[in-house]
Write a sequence for this structure.
């Protein structure tokens, strides 16, 4: 039952984020007619996230309504237990914040490779073949930067240091 409430809360928070992100994407200036504008790709991602959030909300409301009344009485969990369950989530948020902070200094490529590699170290229990993870991080970052710069014509930050 706790996961049903958590899913519903996450869906509502994500829908609110989608609303703010869509408003933010409307503030992107238009450059020319006939080409896809700067808000095209963000609006696609926002739309997909909004649809998935709505599906999660519907699923969690349906699960809550159809659950038995006996399951609605949950044992209380301490704050320490909740922190232990979700600490990887909080570490991921902190890592993402550091990624955003470091990107203007180190540039897109270096900060993205470091972010992906560190995220793997944080979330994975398997520490074998770290060289392969580093190579995959480099390749994924290069492919994404190539797509953004050549096809979507989005300029990625080149850092102050690199």
């Amino acid at each position: 039952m706790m996961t049903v409430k958590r899913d519903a809360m996450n869906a509502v928070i994500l829908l609110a984020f989608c609303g703010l992100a869509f408003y933010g994407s409307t503030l992107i200036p238009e450059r020319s007619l006939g080409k896809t504008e700067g808000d095209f790709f963000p609006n696609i991602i926002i739309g997909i996230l909004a649809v998935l959030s709505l599906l999660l909300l519907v699923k969690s409301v349906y699960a809550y309504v159809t659950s038995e009344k006996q399951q609605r009485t949950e044992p209380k969990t301490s704050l320490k237990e909740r922190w232990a369950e979700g600490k990887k989530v909080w570490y991921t948020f902190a890592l993402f914040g550091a990624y955003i902070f470091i990107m203007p200094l180190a540039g897109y490529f270096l900060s993205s490779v470091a972010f992906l590699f560190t995220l793997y170290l944080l979330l994975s229990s398997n520490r074998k073949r770290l060289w392969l993870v580093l190579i995959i991080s480099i390749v994924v970052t290069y492919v994404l930067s190539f797509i953004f710069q050549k096809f979507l014509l989005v300029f990625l930050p080149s850092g102050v240091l690199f």
Observations:
- The chain has two domains: 1-75, 78-162.
- DSSP finds five helices and no strands in the chain.
- The helical segments are 2-26, 40-66, 79-106, 108-123, 130-151.
- Residues 78-162 form one domain.
